[in-house]
Design goal:
The chain contains eight helices and no strands. It is an all-alpha fold. Helix 5 crosses helix 6.
């Protein structure tokens, strides 16, 4: 009803997903679906429509559960960071670099990739801020997590000498992830949690 739309939170639909937007932001007690027959050829949704729908669904999840959505995206980015970290570490060890230096450089490279992806996706509402300032804050705030990562990695390698460097690095990554999320969410990319406007 018009009254439900008028008291809804600000609407920002993408593509054909206006019904999904209304359901998420008016939160009706009862929903009924009435079929609509288009006056002409309906046309199937193309790839672009499907991608915009997924983008819209992501924005609504952020709107409804901002912390859970941010944590989920942070973990996905972190998984990509794990791949980057292990790939860099493996390449450096294969090239004969000292293990301690290889571990440190792999952490640094994965930290930069995580910053870029988190700024683009996880905390996209903060993209209007200075990238250099956010990068400096990200590096500083993640220093504790990186220190935990580094310390746990070396501790694992010292405790279990037969453990491959990648196994120790994986344990270090897991240890630093929670701290990195909290500092990123509440220090580096702090701000409104409203979903960003469609580009």
């Amino acid at each position: 009803r018009r009254a439900a739309v008028e008291r809804a939170e600000p609407l920002n639909p993408a593509g054909r997903a206006i019904a999904l937007e209304l359901l998420a932001k008016t939160r009706p007690a009862r929903v009924a679906e009435l079929p609509v027959v288009p006056p002409g050829p309906g046309g199937a949704a193309g790839l672009e429509d499907r991608l915009r729908y997924l983008q819209h669904l992501r924005r609504l999840l952020i709107h409804r559960w901002p912390n859970l959505a941010s944590l989920s995206q942070f973990l996905v980015v972190g998984a990509v960071g794990v791949v980057v970290n292990l790939a860099v570490l493996t390449a450096l060890v294969a090239l004969g670099a000292p293990v301690k230096a290889a571990v440190a450089l792999a952490i640094a490279v994965s930290m930069l990739s995580n910053f870029a992806l988190n700024r683009r996706f996880t905390f996209s509402y903060a993209r209007q801020g200075s990238a250099w300032r956010q990068l400096a804050g990200f590096v500083l705030s993640c220093s504790a997590g990186a220190a935990v990562n580094y310390g746990v990695t070396l501790w694992c390698l010292a405790t279990w000498p037969a453990l491959p460097p990648q196994g120790g690095a994986l344990a270090g990554i897991v240890a630093g992830t929670g701290l990195n999320f909290l500092t990123s969410r509440y220090l580096v990319f702090r701000g409104a949690t409203a979903p960003p406007r469609a580009p």
